[in-house]
Amino acid sequence: MPTRKKRPRADPQVPITTEGDMPQKRFYRARAHCNPLSFNECFEYPIRPDLFDWTEDHYPEHPLLTKVDNDEDTNKGGNNSDGIEALTSKSNLICPNVLDVGCGFGGLTLSLSPLLPNHTILGLEIRAKVTEYVRLRIVAQRKDNPGQYQNCSVMRTNAMKYLPNFFPRGALEKLFFCFPDPHFKKKNHPRRIVSERLLTEYAYLLKPSVGRLYCITDVKDLHDWHVEKCEMHPLFEACSEEEMEADPCVALMKSETEEGKKVKREGRFGHDMYYIVYKRVDESGSGGEGGKEEVGSGSVTAENFFEEGGFGVELGTDK
Fold this sequence. Notes:
Elements: H1 54-57, H2 63-74, H3 84-93, E1 98-101, H4 107-115, E2 121-125, H5 128-144, E3 152-156, H6 163-166, E4 174-178, H7 196-205, E5 212-217, H8 220-232, E6 236-238, H9 241-246, H10 248-255, H11 258-265, E7 274-280
Parallel strand pairs: 1-2, 1-4, 2-3, 4-5
Antiparallel strand pairs: 5-7, 6-7
Helix pairs in contact: 4-10
């Protein structure tokens, strides 16, 4: 009786994808979602944003660095510092201002790079294998297209816990939440990426008047949740239909995300996409144009939100 030959096992020391080659998605499949509240793996994060150097691993050849280097060459021979100050200013110059939270396989993160050449884009993903896929994909694109995709990167972290450790107040201009986990069960609603508590955090990080929060999903109940929570928050105001139609980022998040493509393919089954964009209200204003209408005395408004006692927060005193 003939014996079947065993297939040789792959060497675990040999990488699946050579650095610089385009990775194959089938080797990096992972569970679609995980519970961010019970994800106990240790993530590295700085104790404050200014201690993290984004140029070291994420944006070593960012377009803005070329301008800084040229300025340094021009100033050579003058009374220059010992280099520490220059290095600090260079590393602080580069900080992501566009976040694709839960970026998945990186379709939107990469598409935003040529669309927003003067911005710094960062995809955030909690799954290790998927993060590695996006990293290799960006490296391959940089190799095949010299000078391009230097303003986008990906990082593995838990966005529900560590965003304030990486980004200072008012540093972000765009926040994308594309097809997040619906967490249908009521007991799992605290796991949703859009909630009262997290919206306050996003408002802190988004630049007033400029910041935009993008939400898209194919689940109507989750879309209604997004609208309800954002409408209740005093620091967010819905963009008009005209504003959303004029925003090229809206078209991208519908067409370039993996889930967006899937919804289009399966449209015959009744799938649809629901999206909304909210602008960050400027709390320094006096309510007028662009702000939410005034409410009764003692209520939380955009103007008093971050003051002591605002939104139910009181500053503690050291005993």
